[in-house]
Amino acid sequence: xxGTDVAETVVVANPNSGDGGHVEQVRERASLLGYDLxxxxxxxxPVELAREAAAGGASTVVAAGGDGTVNEVLQGIDRADAxxxxxxxxxxxxxxxxxxxxxxxxxxxDAFDVLEGGRRRRIDxxxxxxxxxxxxCVAGLTADASGNTSDSMKRRLGALAYVVTTLRxxxxxxSLPVSVDIQEDGRETxxxxxxxxxxxxxxxxxxxxxxxxxxxxxxxxxxxxxVEELSVTDxxxxxxxxxxxxxxxxxxxxxxxxxxxxxxxxxxxTRFSLDGEILRRESLSMHTDPGAATVAVxxxxxxxxxxx
Length: 308
Fold this sequence. Notes:
Residues 4-132 form the DAGKc domain. This protein is α+β, with helices and mostly antiparallel strands. The chain contains nine helices and 15 strands. The strands form two sheets. Strands 5, 6, 7, 8, 9, 10, 11, 12, 13, 14 and 15 form an eleven-stranded antiparallel beta sheet that branches.
């Protein structure tokens, strides 16, 4: 836990991430390398621990957990106003480790190797109000599924738990009447409007089916995917055959933007998921902060993944 002397590298660990079986391995590797290991004990701890580490002199602060822990640690570094001076790393030990995959970090041992000798890259973060996100922001069906997936189901099924919850939600799901407006060069234009199942905004994440999910996270642009309203039969059929996000579906619209607003034309606030953190809003505006964070990346990370 925090003290007067802070190591150069501090690992902020969520011992409840994933199945919990990683704890000793993370402790041993951190100790061997002379890193501080600060473990969270309650909800919200990773944010405060990361803030204290960044403000206390650490040069690298690491999230040991899943995508939610990544978000919390990033929030903490940002609250210390230290994103420009403190590097960020990830040890993927959660149920969902999509961000780690997108920066080329494949497991606990690899993560510590990357922290010691891997490349550092400046990457974009997304900002909305006083919050930051690094992987994605989603609204609609997938955000509802994320919020409704129990910890016990995550432990039993891993990332498949979100798919199961999504499919279970389909019969009762009400589509979102939304407009997605792009802000660029001082102008706002409507890029899409209608009834949508989900709006997916990727920063480090590209929303595709099956293939590499890494987006270009150094271009100052979000990758936006809108999935329009579908019948249950059409939605399940598209998912089963892998077409929904594969690029050849008539139900999907894609575009890139440096800033946008998602407005729900309904008096009921909807769920937005920022890297798994659930917010309830009627609208959400967001913009990229290009090159705002320094991240330790693995060999598989591609600075220019190209278009798909």
